[in-house]
Amino acid sequence: MTRANLLAVSVGNTRTRVGAYVDGKLVESATFINERHTRVMDSVKDAARPLRDHAEAPVVMSSVNPAVSSQMETELQGLGRPLYRVERDLPIPIGRQLDPEALVGEDRLLNAAGAFDVLKQAAVIVDAGTAMTVDLVDGAGTFHGGAILPGAQLMLDSLTQRTALLPEVELSRPTETVGHSTVEAMLSGVYYGQRGAVRELVERFADAAGQYPLVVATGGDADLLFREWDLVDRIVPDLTLMGLEVTLRVALERGREES
Ligand SMILES: Nc1ncnc2c1ncn2[C@@H]1O[C@H](COP(=O)(O)OP(=O)(O)O)[C@@H](O)[C@H]1O
Ligand SMILES: CC(C)(COP(=O)(O)O)[C@@H](O)C(=O)NCCC(=O)O
Ligand SMILES: [K+]
Hints:
With about 260 residues, the protein is α/β, with parallel strands linked by helices. The chain contains seven helices and eleven strands. The protein has a six-stranded mixed β-sheet with strand order 6-9-8-7-10-11, with helices on both faces. Strands 3-2-1-4-5 form a five-stranded mixed β-sheet, sandwiched between helices. Bound molecules: adenosine-5'-diphosphate (ADP), the ligand CC(C)(COP(=O)(O)O)[C@@H](O)C(=O)NCCC(=O)O and potassium ion.
């Protein structure tokens, strides 16, 4: 089996995740806020340190945030490694059943590819990031799309921005279900609203799929929202990086078959 070496970089709308894979194993990973761009590049170099004896190991990059990633791509070229963008240079190895013109976020496809590579069975993948995505992969490894809704912090921010009286609130677990203050009421609405959306969508996707899928969660808010909740089978913080690793591994295996 191929054991890939790579620096995996995934640019989201809030943060960028970086992971160094040595012999197919994630040995270093880090997450950075996009706004602190110069510090991000320093930290990317730190994260790449385990690959110093693997000068041939490429950077494999994905993005759902072109403004951030176009500048970052130029800077990553400075590492002196080959740089591949998923979908442009390397196809994400996951089947798709979508509208012909559909534009799907690379993070959604990578999560699906990463999950199916390990699970080999039908799964619903929940990515609790800036936006929340809830997607269906069937038992044959085909991505069917799913649902997109505002992420938890985005819900809170939009309440603050579009009302006169609601305050700025940072996401945390509500301490009461029936909120006895404005802040607790906002936290309860968002926390149980997000969980309720996931429950409803998982049940509907299970109906559509004709089987009950595994539920896998990732993203910056997954732990806060889903920890110790039996509806979610696994929380996998590095799922998008796993998708980048399988993308390179499959491309290397195909290259070997062809030569
Ligand atoms: N240090 C942090 N900075 C920003 N957001 C954070 C931080 N730690 C946790 N979060 C949470 O992570 C969410 C973003 O998730 P993430 O997976 O990083 O998003 P994206 O993939 O869209 O960039 C935010 O809504 C926030 O609630
Ligand atoms: C849905 C998303 C905004 C999620 O981004 P994220 O919250 O992970 O930063 C992103 O995957 C995206 O821009 N997708 C393009 C449209 C689509 O997937 O259908
Ligand atoms: K997301």
